[in-house]
Amino acid sequence: MRDAGRFIVLEGGEGVGKTTQAALLSSWMEALGVPHVLTREPGGTPVGEAIREVVLGRTDLEMPPESELLLILAARAAFVRDVVRPALAAGKVVLADRFALSTLAYQGYARGIDLQDVRDGLRIATGGLSPDLYLVLDLPPEEGTARQQRDGMAPDRIEQEGASFLRRVSEAYIALSESEPGVTVVSARGAPEVVQARLREALVRRFPETFGA
What does the pLDDT read at residue 192? Predict the structure, then answer.
């Protein structure tokens, strides 16, 4: 059942354009006739969306890193069970905005929680499920922040941690791309259509049987 579909995840720091690029990829897959599910984390399920509001939306909360980690893992467990596994079993592509790599980058590297503890939690939450491919959108964190300010986006609870935290996240993704399997780094610089072309090229190269038509 696991091999029936493909699990593809867009990753990266704040302001890199994941949401925009995921929507563009979804439109491309639809035009290709590729059955797929577009979803996000934390979120994708009623439990996940409720947790997302606490973790990201509650800017008034001072939350211990361990609490943040456990909430995200709780959302992920529902996400894997209720969204990812059924879609893969149905032969669909799952295109997700964030997954486990985010947890290693944000709660592990940037928050300072022991990486082995994070991995142990991920193993429970995911049941051992890993994406077929992570596409990490790479952009200097100051450029991502400038994009968000230009677009008039108010920072969420995690974005409010400031420049040094966002820099640690950005550095974590580069480190993870060198140590974790199935990770491809894609430059997020340039117009959305330019970045989109890079992502499509990466997908065609990796999965020609699915996207090479």
Answer: 97
Contacts 24+ apart (CB under 8 A), 117-121: 118/69, 121/69, 121/70, 121/73
Weakly modelled stretches of the chain, pLDDT under 50: 1-3
∠ CA 145-115-127, rounded to 5°:
100
| Helix, strand, coil abundance in the chain, percent, nearest 5 | 60, 15, 25
DSSP-assigned letter for residue 92: P
Residue 8 host element (H or E): strand 6-12
CB 107 within 8 A of CB 161: no
Q: Indicate the Cα dihedral angle 201, 135, 124, 105, nearest 10°.
A: 170
Residue 103's domain spans which residues?
2-211
pTM: predicted TM-score of the whole model, two decimal places: 0.95
Q: How far apart are CA 116 and CA 138, in angstroms?
A: 25
**Contact predicate 143/83, CB 8 Å:** no
pLDDT (0 to 100) of residue 212: 86
Nearest to 134 by CA among 90, 93, 95: 95
Q: How many domains does the chain have?
A: 1
CATH number at residue 194: 3.40.50.300
